[in-house]
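Protocol step 4 of 6: record predicted structures for both targets in the notebook before any analysis. Target 1:
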Amino acid sequence: QVQLVESGGGLVQAGGSLRLSCAASGIIFSIDAMGWYRQAPGKQRELVAAVTSDGSTNYADAVTGRFTISRDNAKKTVYLQMNSLKPEDAGVYYCNARLRRNYYDGYSNYWGQGTQVTVSS
């Protein structure tokens, strides 16, 4: 069974920083893209940032220049460094990994349980 376990959320003042981590565990053959999504109350889940296995990154316009995504392939871990946080960055942040469990399987998406980020003004 595959698990994605997130950590690093919390309460921070506007202008502050947080670093989220997400570690994948279980039977995993390979991981393609890993990313972070967020969902604010009453809104749809949206992509924040993603990184492919070769290190290519993609960011939402709202976080470009403030957030940095990175990954450690050996540790099967993805990170999100969030700087200059704004109240509108608040929400539940979900880790996502597109992976396959063995050579014969296709890729599937897996999600973490979510970690809360609260930004006070």
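Target 2:
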Amino acid sequence: DVQLVESGGGSVQAGGSLRLACKFATGYSAVTLCMGWFRQTPGKGREGVAAINRRGTTRYADFVSGRFTISKDKDKNILYLHMNNLKVEDTSMYYCAGAPLVHSPLEPYEYNYWGQGTQVTVS
């Protein structure tokens, strides 16, 4: 079974930065999975933020507007999301997810494995 564990969330002022990390505890590696970051606020559906496939090709939601960067450390089996110039509207629970194959990288339904989330609060 694949276990994903997020870390790095916290509280930050608008304009600040955070780096989220997602560690693969067991199972597949960052090399063999397509990976993504998603977020969800209470009362709203889960939305895609960024994704990276096995070849390293990335995809971002329009609202990212160049502020976030998704990357993976293959040796350490860790997925990252570097977030700069954070806005109040970025406040949300952030989740990492993985799947062997996806066709629509920013669609939550494509992903099989999910972490428990890490809270990001921007004020």
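Step 5 preliminary note on target 2. Residues 70 and 81 are 5 Å apart (CA to CA). The chain is about 0% helix and 50% strand.
Proceed to step 6 after PI sign-off.
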